[in-house]
Design the sequence.
């Protein structure tokens, strides 16, 4: 059976040593109640829950075929209901949510670590509270006080859950062409009519009510994405006293049969003049929904870390136990029929790639979490402005680069198992199937890359990335020259800076340029970010003699030697431009060959 | 539903224009009966069979859960039996096999193309005849005349099938530690006892008898891989008149539940003093089994091409049909609500990566097929020697590089579908699950890489690769200077040559070096090979004005600009050496973090 032990020591190292969380919290007015001891206690509790409650349910849910649909009713896999109740009772749903409505107000740099453990042990389970938390965030920031008071407390007790309803059969990335209609009623409510697809947790049996956040167009709305409004559309209407009223005219038409995350119900939702309530103002729905989308996008990155960590732990254990062949430098275990496959450089290469990915990714998630905490909790306007820009820049990296690297990593971990990695019982193949969606949903990774290169880079004339590189340079300059990653960090800064300038210039003369090189640029900025994380890790570890810390210096060197070379390929591809990408006619692609 | 149309025009181009098959066949005594018209007719027939008979069975077999096991009996998915009968009746099993025993004696450069179509449309189905063909090859080359006469004709009629039984629970890559025993009987037969796992087609209902080729150790055999013998162990013993006799004491204990290729029965096989017959001499079993293994390894590469081609065709069609967003250079389809996603550079980038992979891979498979044909059919001893060396060098590339690139490609094709790629009904997720095994079985891709860098390169002091590079240089020198790929080809030759010299030197002082950099070297030689293939494609296409040919010149340029840059990363990684890979102690990998 697959194993999992939360990497608590690494988590504390990242929080405490690398990002000096204690100091940050103490110096931030609204976080001064939190200290590392409390943070560690929270992480330890989540470590238990993830290992003892949901890990086993991950395999069983997949084996039994996942969520089941029968005439509009969705049944979640065995054990999910009890686990969800326990999760809700533990206060986990509202861990990072507004205390005024029953949340616990914990900072993001802590919640990303708690989330990682759930993503490691049961991604299908994680999706049920995840959408609720996201919907809560959107309501908290964009809805009326009455709406907040009605819905948020029920979210955080786990009595009700949330969804986001964006996609339609013909409309995914291009939300400007949605067809779902919202017709105003005399009482201020709207009648919502349309079909939404790929609705995570659209229907299930974990909660007594489900609150859908639905994008729709009012009758006179402007065309395109400027004419989209956001509505709260509850499964059961809510009476004035907060009790459940009549069933709304909406329901699940079917659930999807998917490659993975089978325990998560992915629903087709039909709205048939269902009663909905406007959130904020008409035609401003997309901005409100993007509050939720940006939260989910960071979460997808954490899904990647979680899967990659789980894959690593299982592969490292398998490689340690599996005896096969002998070391090239002489027999290592003469008492055994063969040496552990850890004697083979190729197995180590794979494991170190995954390990390096996990440690850099985790640091990066905490870093972005800290930036989000600054935007939310700081009173320093300039710090908030900078952090907002940083989050805008790095959200596509968190979503797309982390999940791209996570899939690479999980595939390498699976390969350590040889044929056994392909067999269901070892859990690795499920890990990959479950993980794959993270690159696709909440905006494909290609869409993230286009966001990074377009809205976040070219549009600001490179201001966001320039400020990020300045921070990295300043940090590197403060480092001990003896750390070899210092020079590598400064070199990457130089390369990505030059690349950015090249891109901005090319984009001016060729509108197709940015889209054609977007993914390579995303990976270049990802490599810059992970190098920066290893610089911070090395700086934090250098003075400590224990092997736990000194090994991090080796891993940082490994990263520079063996992972960072990907940058050379990315730079060459970007320099090769867009012409060859765009040159062939459309019918070339499907012509009979 | 997924689509597939065999790329017959491309196949003819590769055979006829690039590798001048007609000329080669006419000048090769034992192939002079074959011409392009016959070859095309064979490929057209297979195109029909793959599209009309087995394509639909691919999805249905997966949906119904694949092969079923019940008390030692394996039932193949619905329709497999009828399709297999049709396949056998068409003479397809023995297409490339010895005519003396009922085969059709067709050259490999043709059969690789027929095989590709089956791999495209139903990889689980393909595995049933595949193992038979491999077993037939091993018997044909290593067994006695009597054994050949007994088993081979039944293989090619499809009455009997074959397996290869190597792996045991504790013994995969390291066959030296197998435990299966072969005890000699007075009548010259042996009693075989042991458990073999991961036995493809070990038990099934398609044929009346199953002939297992089993590796086992005789009582006094030397330790390790020098003490392994090969045995024919039939499910039903064969009477002297060729009719079926008593049931042998062997059987399937269970079948594996796998990530993919669910229609293929992967069996645990228990041999309980089962009667077996020695093939060749005692202790020389591994060499005989490697006849089969090397055949299967090239086949795995073709599995990769097949999957990638299938993925491409479906993704290109989806991208053409899917309307989303508008072109950056202005609306392209004003009459539609949005443009086809082919207007976006990132979508084209993905499709062109896949297309470039398919065309280079296919050419490479035909190239290796031609080398195999020279070894088999040529009377020129020096040509045979060179071709043998070339096949030895390139078999790991065919197996591992082609399947690595195929998975990358299938993942990019899946991504073109957005969320729809994750849903079962589009077939893309099954394609990836089915394909993934190709990187793992028949020796993991890491093991292939170690074979390439060790036995095939360092051991020969670089002789094989030097001869290959000399051929490529000679070809490039003959090319028109106006073809930009000419310079790129010469440059890659130079880089891989220098890299090889560096590796041979480093390996002398560090026994761990080659294993640690093996996969990067495999990819470097793969990039060299694909560049060479595009050089040959470009040379063959250049003088022909039709867009079919001229577009190939664009694709070759695309390859150099956008795929070949990976070489820079591979070179840097190899130059970074093995030290950081090997430095950390074994317990680092599993220490609680």
Sequence:
């Amino acid at each position: 059976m697959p194993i999992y032990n939360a990497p608590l020591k690494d988590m504390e190292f990242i929080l405490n040593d690398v990002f000096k969380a204690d100091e940050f919290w103490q110096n931030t007015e609204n976080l001064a109640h939190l200290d590392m001891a409390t943070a560690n206690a929270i992480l330890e509790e989540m470590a238990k829950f993830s290992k003892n409650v949901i890990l086993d349910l991950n395999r069983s849910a997949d084996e039994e075929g996942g969520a089941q649909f029968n005439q509009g009713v969705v049944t979640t896999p065995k054990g999910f209901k009890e686990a969800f109740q326990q999760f809700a009772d533990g206060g986990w749903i509202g861990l990072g949510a507004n205390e005024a409505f029953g949340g616990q107000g914990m900072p993001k740099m802590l919640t990303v670590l708690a989330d990682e453990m759930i993503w490691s042990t049961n991604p299908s389970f994680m999706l049920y509270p995840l959408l609720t938390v996201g919907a809560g965030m959107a309501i908290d920031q964009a809805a009326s006080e009455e709406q907040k008071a009605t819905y948020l407390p029920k979210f955080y007790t786990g009595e009700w859950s949330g969804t986001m309803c964006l996609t339609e059969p013909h409309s995914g990335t291009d939300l400007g062409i949605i067809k779902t209609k919202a017709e105003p009623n005399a009482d201020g409510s709207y009648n919502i009519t349309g079909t939404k697809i790929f609705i995570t947790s659209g229907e299930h049996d974990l909660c007594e009510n489900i609150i859908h956040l639905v994008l729709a167009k009012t009758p006179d709305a402007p065309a395109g994405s400027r004419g989209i409004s956001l509505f709260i559309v509850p499964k059961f209407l809510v009476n004035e006293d907060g009790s459940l009223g009549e069933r709304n005219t909406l329901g699940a038409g079917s659930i999807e049969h998917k490659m993975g995350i089978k325990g998560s119900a992915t629903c087709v939702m039909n709205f048939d003049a269902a009663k909905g309530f406007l959130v904020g103002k008409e035609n401003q729905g997309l901005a409100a929904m993007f509050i939720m989308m940006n939260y989910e996008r960071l979460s997808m990155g954490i899904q990647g870390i979680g899967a990659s960590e789980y894959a690593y732990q299982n592969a490292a254990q398998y490689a340690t136990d599996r005896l096969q062949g002998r070391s090239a430098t002489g027999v290592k275990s003469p008492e055994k029929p063969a040496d552990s496959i850890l004697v083979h450089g190729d197995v180590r290469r794979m494991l170190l790639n995954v390990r390096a990915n996990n440690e850099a990714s985790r640091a990066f998630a905490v870093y972005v979490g800290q930036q989000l905490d600054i935007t939310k909790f700081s009173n320093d306007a300039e710090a908030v402005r900078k952090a907002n820009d940083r989050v805008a820049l790095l959200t596509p990296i968190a979503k797309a680069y982390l999940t791209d690297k996570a899939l690479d990593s999980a595939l390498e971990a699976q390969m350590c198992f040889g044929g056994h990695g392909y067999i269901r019982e070892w859990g690795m193949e499920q890990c990959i199937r479950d993980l794959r969606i993270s690159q696709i949903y909440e905006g494909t990774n290609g869409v993230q890359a286009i966001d990074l290169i377009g809205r976040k880079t070219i549009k600001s004339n490179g201001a966001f990335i320039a400020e990020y590189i300045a921070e990295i340079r300043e940090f590197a300059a403060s480092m001990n020259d003896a750390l070899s990653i210092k020079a590598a960090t400064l070199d990457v800064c130089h390369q990505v800076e030059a690349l950015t300038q090249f891109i901005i210039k090319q984009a001016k003369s060729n509108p197709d340029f940015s889209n054609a090189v977007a993914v390579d640029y995303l990976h270049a900025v990802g490599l810059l970010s992970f190098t920066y994380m290893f610089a911070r890790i090395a700086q934090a570890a250098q003075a400590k003699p224990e092997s736990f810390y000194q090994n991090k210096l080796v891993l940082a060197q490994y990263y520079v030697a063996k992972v960072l070379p990907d940058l050379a390929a990315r730079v060459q591809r970007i320099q090769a431009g867009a012409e060859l990408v765009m040159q062939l006619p459309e019918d070339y692609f499907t012509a009979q060959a």
Remarks:
- The CA atoms of residues 221 and 354 of chain B lie 49 Å apart.
- The first strand of chain B starts at residue 68 and ends at 70.
- Chain B has a mean pLDDT of 97.
